[in-house]
Specification:
266 residues, Arc Repressor Mutant, subunit A, single chain, alpha+beta, 4-stranded mixed sheet
Length: 266
């Protein structure tokens, strides 16, 4: 807990100017422009405010403000999605975070999943108490996204079908295959259901694992979807994969070239 020290009239006026002219984060460049200062001076000013507790540094050269009425600088992020867009652009909110947004799960996840083309050393940063889980993807995979506005910040989020695609490609982004099955079930019952679009997305992603997992699961959850199941079957290659890479899998389903746990329902 960092106690706030006193703030003078000039500093208060400057911070107010920054708050009016920025969204969610404050950079050195923005500070220099808004306060008509050299960048070196702006950087020192932000650093001084951070020491005093009026700013919180979340990345080199990037800060968030602490409300002037706060007693300490230990505040939670007001808008993690917008912060993610500012820090990791180009990126999108995905995984279980997107599933929560689209109502595909009632489970509460305390970590925000972000897929970005940036290559970052720390893939599990904690910013002002908010946990992020970062996945690096190629720029060509930035499709199937919806736009949501957080204030004046445009945030990209995987649409419901792309969210399911990402789960099938990497079950870990849904918390494992069992939660993924629950979210897939909800998707199949929802207004978002569009299996032909899911196949189109899977073709675009060029991930054979998606077709194996999807075909296998549809035979259990929605066996009437014969056209989609057959479309998956036609795209199954000879490689073998696990239904969930994180689980011990000793039963092999030849039809789908898929290793599944012994206790998995047939």
């Amino acid at each position: 807990m960092t106690p706030l020290s006193g703030i003078g009239k000039l500093d208060r006026e400057r911070i107010t100017t920054l708050l009016r002219g920025t969204q969610h984060t404050i950079s050195v460049a923005e500070t220099a422009k808004l306060l008509h200062l050299p960048q070196a001076h702006a950087a020192k000013l932000l650093a001084r405010w951070a020491v005093k507790g009026w700013m919180s540094r979340i990345k080199r050269g990037v800060y968030i403000s602490v409300p002037l009425e706060s007693q300490t600088s230990d505040i939670a992020l007001e808008d993690p999605f917008a912060i993610a867009e500012k820090l990791y652009h180009p990126c999108y909110i995905g995984g279980w975070s997107a599933a929560e947004h689209w109502g595909l799960t009632e489970q509460i996840f305390n970590t925000v999943v972000v897929l970005t083309i940036q290559r970052l050393r720390n893939r599990k940063p904690v910013i002002q108490g908010t946990r992020f889980l970062l996945h690096t993807v190629s720029e060509k995979t930035l499709f199937g996204l919806a736009t949501i506005w957080h204030g004046k910040t445009k945030v990209y989020i995987s649409d419901p079908t792309r969210t399911i695609l990402d789960f099938l490609d990497n079950p870990k982004m849904g918390g494992g295959i069992r939660p993924v099955v629950d979210m897939l079930t909800n998707y199949l019952k929802s207004e978002h259901k569009n299996l032909k679009l899911l196949i189109d997305y899977a073709n675009q992603l060029t991930s054979g694992a998606v077709f194996k997992r999807l075909g296998f699961l549809l035979e259990q959850l929605a066996p009437v979807e014969l056209e989609i199941i057959e479309a998956c079957k036609k795209r199954v290659n000879i490689s073998k994969i696990k239904l969930d890479p994180q689980l011990d899998a000793k039963r092999f389903v030849t039809r789908w070239r898929l290793w599944v746990p012994i206790d998995w329902k047939k």
